[in-house]
Amino acid sequence: MAIALAAVMLPISVTGPGVALADMSGALNASAASTQWVLNAYNVAFTAFMLAAGSAADLFGRRRLFLSGTTVFALASLVAGTAPTILLVDLARFVQGMGAAAVLTSGSALLAHTFSGAARARAFGIFGASIGFGLAMGPFVSGLLVGVASWHAVFLVNVLLGAVVLVLARPLPESKNPGARRIDLPGVLTFTLALMLLALGFVEGPSQGWGGVVTLGSFAGAALFLALFVVVELRVAEPMFDLSLLRRPTFVAIIWQPVSIVFAFAALLVYLPPYFQGAGGAGSTMSGAMLLPLTLPVFILPLFTGTLVRLLSVRMLLAVGPAVLAVALLLMTFTDPLSSRTGLYAALLLAGVGIGLAFGVMDNAAVSVVPAERSGMASGMFNTLRVAGETIGVACVGGLLLTSTRQQLSGSGGGASGAMADDVVQGRLGSVRESGGEDLVDRAVQGLQHGWSVVYVVLACVALAGAIAIFTMVRDRDLDQSSTAQDV
């Protein structure tokens, strides 16, 4: 129960700020770049410390790390919810992401160690459903909180949830890997710097120019530290990212599969609410509700993991999911939130079905293809790449959306500017209206819709590539344990 509730809590911390971005940026007088770091700071820390958390869970104990991570997560949420400046929010979100990494990795490792066979399949089905529930209800609940209270409540609700998780987690059994001896600190440092520089490049690209010194320097630094990370992992006695596991094509495909899904999913959850609030004219509560066709299938479908596996097999579920998502994203290029909401809801529903098909089997598949004593590391590797997909997706889509919108607006003339692109992407059409009236608002919305069309096509290509990789690389015989799943 504690792990399931934690799995609900973590997605809320990703999707909630997306609904609150417009209110938050206005209240704290924040720029588009600094507001985007509210998202990126959490995602970078979440991703960067995932591998270290997996190693720490095996070394110090999975229950101990679960409790410690939940405490850090709740305290950082308290700071973010009461912060008077955007800088303090960003810093608190980074610490919150560190706690989230410990919670997710140790939680899934606890499940893998505690259950086996069909029972483990059921446990991970509930785990996936809990994540789906958090994703499904996160935007809606956060929209309600913003509408009834303020953006502060989006963070403060996690303080309450964290306290409940701590109480429920006390009876959990302790487990650790007796062969683990230390944490790979050089690996943590090089991986963290690589990811932060990669995110920095995508965030600064629209304002500094994609060929600018800051942008290119960030990408070059990210490549350098990533190469150093590989060198470190090859030389240390106990790497946190065991590159020898990458010799298994099935494991490689499975740990990369989430990237093809969450790359799009996280970006849609974060940037669609401001789009709905601005171009669609929706309030914060309505913008959260408009995401329900996308998120509800992610909650519901993992509940039927056993039945779906018997019908399609794990391999087919992992491949069909991103393929369906790719089709849905291409359909979304023909919709807009103002004039064709029915078509938009249908496309979002199809996208949710594609994501939900894979969510119930991804975690179990990742830990089923490695020995049980290495479940912490396997979980860390899998979740690192899943959250890395979210991090890169949010950062990349934010930069791509802003750049495409700016280019379209600059081509339309009529006083369009980079500042106006910032406002329309963040859903602040009031500022655009004050500077140029309804004609300028119409041009701004058209520019934003063009930007979204570009984003949809790029995300569809990423999802389709993931589907092809899964279908060609995964071997059914390596997933025999996963195929024993029963109905949850």
UniProtKB/TrEMBL annotation:
InterPro entries listed in its UniProt record? MFS (IPR011701), MFS_dom (IPR020846), MFS_trans_sf (IPR036259)
Q: Does the keyword Transmembrane helix apply?
A: yes
List where the protein spans the membrane.
42-60, 65-88, 94-112, 124-145, 151-171, 183-203, 209-231, 251-272, 284-304, 316-334, 346-372, 454-474
Topological relation to the membrane, as annotated: Multi-pass membrane protein
Q: Where does it localize?
A: Cell membrane
GO BP annotations listed: response to antibiotic
Q: List, alphabetically, the GO terms of the cellular component aspect.
A: plasma membrane
Q: Please report the stretch or stretches of sequence annotated as the Major facilitator superfamily (MFS) profile domain.
A: 1-478
Q: Does the keyword Transmembrane helix apply?
A: yes
Which coarse location class applies to the principal site listed for this UniProt protein? membrane
One Pfam family name from the record? MFS_1
Q: What is this protein called?
A: EmrB/QacA subfamily drug resistance transporter
Record the organism: Streptomyces violarus
